[in-house]
Automatic annotation (TrEMBL):
GO process annotations (BP): D-serine metabolic process; L-serine metabolic process
GO MF assignments: ATP binding; D-serine ammonia-lyase activity; L-serine ammonia-lyase activity; pyridoxal phosphate binding; serine racemase activity
Keyword Lyase in record: yes
Key word Plastid present: no
Chain's role: Catalyzes the synthesis of D-serine from L-serine. D-serine is a key coagonist with glutamate at NMDA receptors. Has dehydratase activity towards both L-serine and D-serine.
Listed EC numbers: 4.3.1.17, 4.3.1.18, 5.1.1.18
Protein name stated in the entry: Serine racemase
InterPro entries in UniProt: ACT_dom, ACT_ThrD-II-like, Ser/Thr_Dehydratase, TrpB-like_PALP, TrpB-like_PALP_sf
Catalytic activity line of the entry: L-serine = D-serine; D-serine = pyruvate + NH4(+); L-serine = pyruvate + NH4(+)
Family the UniProt entry places it in: Belongs to the serine/threonine dehydratase family.
A Pfam match: PALP
Domain ACT: residue ranges: 347-427
Organism (species): Batillaria attramentaria
Length: 431
């Protein structure tokens, strides 16, 4: 049977369940599991830095960025397979990072890997998995549909299905990041971790709390898919509608049962961040850290920028930056959103005289303030009441928010018709 025919196969519902992630019998991993994982993966996973950031002064806290990739759990899980299963291979559903981790370590360990990715998965991640030799199947509107397809293939072909955020070995492997953070940042006060399915925060929180219970564990989600927060409120994992988000790697509608069982008593605080602050965090990381981080990995910094964690002022804080696989075509749009959120990219419409020199006067004012024009468009046809005026729509780049406000004040002094900001939707009638 081909992979495309799996959805048509009549597989009993009870056989489609993941035996390692049973809601009726959740598994809470132990610190011993994490220690074992650290020993087994020590030669196959790079020891990543956790360095003090120059952003510390800006936000009045000692910020240490742990620039890591979610490969630890994947390697440990593959190493734990039986010889027979290593020959057959494994399968997973993933929008990106878990698929990449399995594909890479499957290649290095000689284990066949099949990954099912939703149609919304970034093309860069799909291509990278194929370059690592994985069999990549792109199907499903979201990760839920992709998982169903992957589970069907696993039952038919004998592949082991590996849940990227809830398999016990995944949790144990991810927990080794927590061990590294504590060894790299003495006297740590808090650790901020992005949360999607919950696997990373479950493992890392267990490792950190086991060695130092006084460290505050803070989870961060996108407000467009706050499934872990919903689970904490309900007392168990619940379905949460996932909307389009820059943090696509965190868009998991239902968190893992094992992850929840392990992490629920270890997390001190959960916060949700807005999309514009995720974009701003990506921009800040590129400009100040020279680090390209995808939306999911940047949510921890986004929470700090948004001002959601004032209690961390003056504290020593580690922030996990997990994942640099932002799609190249999307990066430019994300950076523009970040510039707009910071007030450095501004759009406005001003009505000026249509007589000779009218637009020239406007551009002279803009240039005189040291503002750069990125785009300019003038429209005559939509102005109903004054045939001798013209609307000029501008997109300009400024140094910062104060510079933008200075431009706005100057334009309002000179012109009576100014529409400032993104509320502009079409025409402005001069009356």
């Amino acid at each position: 049977m081909s992979d495309a025919d799996v959805d048509k196969a009549q597989i009993p519902e009870e056989e489609m369940k993941d035996k390692f992630c049973d809601p009726e019998n959740p598994v809470s991993i132990s610190f011993r599991d994490i220690s074992a994982a650290a020993y087994k993966i020590r030669d196959g996973v790079q020891y990543t830095p956790c360095s003090l950031s120059q952003m510390s002064q800006t936000y009045d806290m000692q910020i240490y960025f742990k620039k890591d990739f979610k490969e630890r759990g994947a390697r440990f899980t593959l190493l734990q397979l039986s010889p027979e299963q290593k020959k057959k291979g494994v399968i997973a559903a993933s929008a990106g990072n878990h698929a990449l981790a399995l594909s890479y370590h499957g290649m290095t360990l000689g284990i066949p890997i099949t990954v099912v990715m939703p149609i919304v998965a970034p093309l860069m991640k799909v291509s990278a998995c194929r370059q690592y030799g994985a069999n990549v199947i792109v199907t499903g509107a979201d990760i839920g549909e992709s998982k169903k397809h992957a589970m069907g293939i696993s039952k038919i072909k004998g592949f082991l299905y590996i849940n990227g955020y809830d398999h016990p070995d995944i949790l144990a492997g991810q927990g080794t990041m927590g061990l590294e953070i504590l060894s790299q940042v003495p006297e740590l006060d808090a650790c901020i971790i992005p949360v999607g399915g919950g696997g990373l925060i479950a493992g890392a929180a267990l490792a950190i709390k086991s060695l130092n219970p006084n460290v505050q564990i803070i989870g961060v989600e996108s407000e467009r898919c706050a499934s872990f927060s919903a689970a904490l409120k309900a007392g168990h994992p619940v379905y949460t509608k996932s909307l389009s988000t820059l943090a696509d790697g965190l868009a998991v509608p239902t968190i893992g049962v094992n992850a929840f069982c392990t992490a629920k008593s270890l997390i001190d605080k959960m916060v949700t961040v807005k999309e514009e602050y995720i974009a701003l965090a990506i921009l800040r990381l590129i400009e100040q850290e020279k680090a390209v981080v995808e939306g999911a990995g940047a949510t921890g910094l986004a929470a700090v920028i948004q001002g959601l964690l004032p209690e961390l002022k003056g504290k020593k804080v580690a922030i996990a930056l997990c994942g640099g696989n932002i799609d190249t075509t999307a990066l430019g749009r994300v950076l523009e959103r970040g510039l707009a959120a910071e007030g450095r990219l501004v759009r406005f419409v001003v009505t000026v005289s249509d007589r000779p020199g009218g637009i020239a006067e406007l551009t002279k004012i803009i240039a005189g303030l040291g503002v750069s024009i990125k785009d300019i468009l003038h429209e005559r046809a939509w102005l109903k009441s004054d045939v001798f005026s013209v609307q000029v729509k501008c997109v300009v780049e400024t140094r910062d928010m104060e510079h933008s406000k200075e431009l706005e004040r100057k334009l309002r002094e000179v012109y009576s018709q100014v529409v400032w900001g993104p509320q502009y939707t079409g025409t402005v009638d001069s009356e």
